[in-house]
Hints:
The chain is an alpha/beta fold. The protein has two domains: 9-41 and 298-393, Aspartate Aminotransferase, domain 1 (Alpha-Beta Complex); 46-295, Type I PLP-dependent aspartate aminotransferase-like (Major domain) (Aspartate Aminotransferase, domain 2, 3-Layer(aba) Sandwich). 38% of the residues lie in helices and 13% in strands. It is built from twelve helices and 13 strands. The strands form three sheets. A seven-stranded mixed sheet has the order 2-8-7-6-5-3-4, with helices on both faces. Helix 5 links the parallel strand 3 and strand 4 (150-153). The two termini are 38 Å apart. The structure holds pyridoxal-5'-phosphate. Residues 35, 98-100, 123, 176, 180, 208, 210, 238, 240, 246, 251 line the site of pyridoxal-5'-phosphate.
Amino acid sequence: xxxxxxxxxxxxxxxxxxxxxxxxxxxxxxxxxxxxxxxxxxxxxxxxxxxxxxxxxxxxxxxxxxxxxxxxxxxxxxxxxxxxxxxxxxxxxxxxxxxxxxxxxxxxxxxxxxxxxxxxxxxxxxxxxxxxxxxxxxxxxxxxxxxxxxxxxxxxxxxxxxxxxxxxxxxxxxxxxxxxxxxxxxxxxxxxxxxxxxxxxxxxxxxxxxxxxxxxxxxxxxxxxxxxxxxxxxxxxxxxxxxxxxxxxxxxxxxxxxxxxxxxxxxxxxxxxxxxxxxxxxxxxxxxxxxxxxxxxxxxxxxxxxxxxxxxxxxxxxxxxxxxxxxxxxxxxxxxxxxxxxxxxxxxxxxxxxxxxxxxxxxxxxxxxxxxxxxxxxxxxxxxxxxxxxxxxxxxxx
Length: 398
Ligand code: PLP
């Protein structure tokens, strides 16, 4: 725990917001920082949860513990909806209380004796959970890197994909696509390279597809679209950003039967053991909601909320572009990744806050590769996004 970065990103942002509010008590602050969903969950989904909940008060509808791996009907629906013809079986799907929790359960599975690689920049939970479990033997150096973790730099210069010919071998590779924070969805060719690299090195890929529903181009929505991936990859995913379940809490992890440790033992057996010993299954109310999400009516309703956020992304991307800045992301993810060449990302954060009263996230909070960038969330009510857009258009960054 001592080795964790001292200042976790989001509390630091909140502290600066509080200071700002004290300084400008009459200004309305717009929060485009933390990636939290804002729009109501469609009723077809919440009604299923409330019906299930009310039934818990009846002798016929009461349910106690369920299967630790999740309700089989939901596991089947996840396979049908997200994996279609891909070689994923319902028995390989573990329903969970969200992918952040699964990241830590996977760390428990992998233990402290493995080496890891992450994209730089990346979602902070991969590194933090590695440090917590004891993988990062070294402390953070002056650039903000942990000495024992391999950082795979991903920026516009390499099409947001690491140069694998120069990447050190590790036991585990965390890979997020579409990426938080850059918004980049890896192409099929890029993912083929990644799978090949993992095969050559005997590495396990932990593939985070939490934002797959936001993909609008040809990019794969699952690592299992790549031939051979079932032998090297675990996929984690979530209902948080597709269905607004950030508070309800529901996700899943796929561990294929074909994925083996170097001694030939199936990884799925150990993961099952971790799930049974350290979890006890996702809330049955949340699972009832998940099942409703995957009904034809529920799926249509939840995807219309995704489209709403995508329109927000268009509006904000246009505002940042009008300032002459290069804007990445937004097309395949609910985040914009805005490049401010030559400027430090905390300085840009401060300047935008000071001049427009808008909270963003400094890119350096996602790793040293995020310096010169800010991340902007496109989750928000439309009127707030439009107001932010108006304020941004008159911004002059110095
Ligand atoms: N993975 C990524 C890339 C995320 O950005 C987030 C949340 O922002 C999560 C996982 C966590 O998702 P969950 O709400 O399912 O724990």
